[in-house]
Design a protein that fits this description.
By secondary structure, the chain is of the alpha/beta class. It has 14 helices and 13 strands. The protein is globular, with a radius of gyration of 21 Å. The model has no long low-confidence stretch (mean pLDDT about 95). The structure holds pyridoxal-5'-phosphate.
């Protein structure tokens, strides 16, 4: 079976872990965490990058920095991972879910402004599949209404929008280094802080609400409780693994893009015939080959495609169940009557095909085309 994901090892991960062990500091913020921080700051040009144990943690720090209070509203797409909303829900915030643009699967910027109220605190664009949202429009809206922009760039490492790294366009940005991401450390993440006014407080929150960062720099002679916070930093073994990945980020991205382009070219005819939709390249944004998705004509055809691919030895998966349809949102935010037509139609028709370094892409494409043809034939006969 060709798995949906196969993490790529650069070969240096264990060497760096061994070095971290020999250095003798296995808790966080040692040599390797500092090197990862430097790499992120250099490669994204952000003012400050803080390594976290997950993107979820980075989002939670962002929600504290945004000073989210009971009843504050945060605008985000419904087509996203639970952490995008949960980070704000934990502080009493209310997610206001918006539909996606069917061409990009990112938040539909045209719908944002009419959801803004006196309670709105922030806009949280999610860069689905490593393609940047329409950030220029989002920043303009945020400026006009004095709102923060917190980018959920979980899938966005190495992607750019008009020359800027995703995650370093809004006030704050959050990356994931979960095993399923292009660059990974098992679990891992980072907070990018473009808006410098948040740097000092972000450091306190990340280190259990203490001013240990000042102590580490020799600015205070002891550290103490100065703010709310939690333990959001990873240990050095995670950072050591991650540095090995980061050092190869350019090559990894290049290889992923080759596979992505191969699928894109191979499926062009099927998308032009309207049999499936495939992601469209956008000239002003460089993506990172994180996800290759197909949008089928019907839910029936999507499910049949996943079954057929599995029988042919290729694992294909669906993606997010929209948050406004989730049991928690329906119970707490009463989203039963919320209608997000594109989100509701697309999530049931979307499949993701495997994309990882070393995959037999020719074989996968062959099986995709075979399956799509079989489905068209079978549906024609049964008129489904
Ligand atoms: C859009 C989005 N945000 C946040 C996360 C959470 O990332 P992590 O697992 O690093 O906490 C994910 C995970 O896949 C994601 O897809």
């Amino acid at each position: 079976m060709i798995p949906f994901n196969k993490p790529f090892l650069t070969g240096k991960e264990l060497k760096y872990i061994d070095q971290a062990n020999n250095l003798g500091q296995l808790a966080g913020d040692g040599y390797f965490t500092t090197e990862c921080k430097k790499w992120l700051e250099k490669n994204t040009s952000t003012s400050c990058a803080l390594l976290t144990h997950s993107c979820t943690a980075a989002l939670e720090i962002a929600a504290i920095l945004a000073d989210i209070k009971e009843g504050d509203e945060i605008i985000m797409p419904s087509f996203t991972f639970v952490s995008t909303a949960n980070a704000f829900a934990l502080r009493g915030g209310k997610p206001i879910f918006i539909d996606i643009n069917p061409l990009t699967l990112n938040i539909d910027t045209k719908l944002i402004e009419k959801e803004i109220t006196h309670k709105t605190k922030a806009i949280v664009p999610v860069h689905y599949s490593g393609f940047g949202c329409d950030m220029e429009e989002i920043l303009n809206i945020a400026k006009k209404h004095n709102l923060l922009v917190i980018e959920d760039a979980a899938q966005g490492i190495m992607s750019k929008y008009k020359g800027e790294s995703l995650g370093n366009i809004g006030d704050l940005g959050c990356y994931s280094f979960h095993e399923t991401k292009n660059i990974f450390a098992g679990e891992g993440g980072a907070l990018l802080i473009k808006n410098k006014k948040f740097i000092e407080r972000a450091e306190f929150i990340r280190e259990k609400g203490t001013n240990r960062s000042l102590f580490n720099r020799g600015i205070t002679d002891k550290y103490t409780w100065v703010d709310i916070g939690s333990s959001f930093l990873p240990g050095e073994l995670t950072a050591a693994f991650l540095l090995a990945q980061m050092e190869n980020a350019k090559e990894i991205t290049k290889e992923r893009l080759k596979i992505w382009d191969f699928y894109h070219k191979g499926l062009k005819d099927y998308s032009e015939n309207g049999i499936v939709s495939i992601p469209c390249n956008q000239e002003d944004r460089l993506h990172n080959g994180h996800i290759f998705y197909l949008i089928h004509q019907t839910n029936f055809k999507r499910d049949l495609f996943i079954k057929k691919m599995s029988k042919k030895g290729v694992m294909v998966v669906f993606h997010y169940i929209p948050l406004h349809l989730s049991p928690y949102s329906r119970k707490v935010y009463k989203t039963d009557n919320l209608k997000l037509p594109f989100t509701e139609s697309i999530y049931k028709r979307l499949s993701r095909i495997p994309i990882w370094l070393g995959i037999d892409k020719e074989l996968v494409l062959e099986k995709i085309i075979e399956s799509l043809k079989e489905i068209e034939h079978e549906c024609k006969i049964s008129k489904k």
